[in-house]
Design goal:
Elements lengths: L1 H32 L2 H36 L3 H33 L10 H4 L2 H29 L1
Helix pairs in contact: 1-2, 1-5, 2-3, 3-5
């Protein structure tokens, strides 16, 4: 079981962490340079592409890590896989509770008719902070899976 589940977990969290790191170092700084209407347009464009992909990778990671945590032949492998599963689940939790509500609100806006108080409600700083949190958690989950692989080899 671990011979299949662990590579799947590594692939899924590697893709997810890579997307989040790429967003943190490329997309977020770009968003900060845009006027509000262009930001709303750019965010809608990107969110519609990342949203279906990112959650699927994270759910696959959690499931695969749980399978490894149950089936690993060593206590160290089970513990590391369990921690990796919790870290990946934490990324999901931050996404659902912090980033997804912002994404939904932004998708509801017409970039050509932004609310008069958009400048006060501009979510870029808030969204960026939580994106950094979930990026760190995803990278830690990836590191956990790499260490798990080393322990189980």
């Amino acid at each position: 079981m671990t011979g299949i589940a662990l590579p799947v977990a590594l692939l899924a969290i590697g893709l997810s962490a890579g997307v989040l790191v790429g967003t943190s170092i490329g997309v977020v700084p770009f968003y900060k340079t845009l006027p509000a209407d262009e930001y709303v347009r750019a965010h809608a464009f990107a969110a519609g592409r990342y949203d279906p992909f990112q959650p699927a990778c994270l759910v696959v990671t959690v499931i695969a890590d749980v399978l490894v945590a149950v089936a690993a032949p060593t206590v160290g492998g089970r513990v590391l896989a369990g921690v990796s599963a919790l870290l990946a689940a934490s990324v999901v939790t931050v996404s659902v509770t912090r980033n997804v509500p912002v994404n939904r609100w932004l998708r509801s806006l017409d970039p050509d008719r932004l609310p008069a108080d958009f400048a006060e409600r501009d979510p870029r700083r808030y969204w960026t902070k939580w994106n950094q949190v979930r990026t760190a958690l995803a990278v830690l989950a990836l590191l956990g899976n790499v260490v798990t692989t080393g322990v189980l080899l």
